[in-house]
Write a structure and sequence with these properties.
The chain has a 4-stranded antiparallel β-sheet with strand order 2-3-1-4, covered by helices on one side. It has 3 helices and 4 strands. The chain is elongated, with a radius of gyration of 14 Å. The protein is an alpha+beta fold. The protein has one domain: Alpha-Beta Plaits.
C-alpha cells in the first residue's frame, strides 16, 4: 500500500480530483480536509486556505495518479508517496478488488 499526499487550491477542486481518481479505479479511498497553507512564491510568503488529500493506492498506480494530479491542479503541485510496510489483511484483500489492474 502507498499513501499519496498532495494539496489542492480548495476543497471543491479536491473533491473533483478525488472523484476522478475513484472513477478511474486508481485508489481504494481518498481522504481530504481543509488546510491552512503557508508557502514561498518567489520572494513572497503566502498564507492561504487549501485542501489536503491522502490517496490510498498501490505502487503500480503512482505514476498514473501523479499525471492526473499534474494535469488537473494547474500549478506545480507537491505529490509525495509514502510506502506503508504493514496494514490489516482484510483491508489489503478488499483493496485488491477495487483498484483496477
Amino acid at each position: 500500500m502507498v499513501l499519496i499526499y498532495t494539496t489542492c487550491k480548495d476543497t471543491k477542486d479536491a473533491v473533483r480530483l478525488g472523484n476522478e481518481i475513484m472513477n478511474r479505479h486508481l485508489a481504494s479511498a481518498v481522504n481530504l480536509w481543509p488546510i491552512q497553507m503557508i508557502m514561498r512564491v518567489g520572494t513572497e510568503v503566502k498564507n492561504e486556505l487549501g485542501a489536503g488529500m491522502l490517496i490510498k493506492t498501490m505502487e503500480p498506480k503512482i505514476a498514473e495518479i501523479e499525471e492526473l494530479i499534474e494535469s488537473q491542479v494547474g500549478i506545480m503541485p507537491y505529490i509525495g508517496a509514502i510506502d506503508i510496510r504493514r496494514f490489516n489483511r482484510a483491508y489489503r484483500e478488499w483493496m485488491a478488488t477495487v483498484i483496477k489492474e
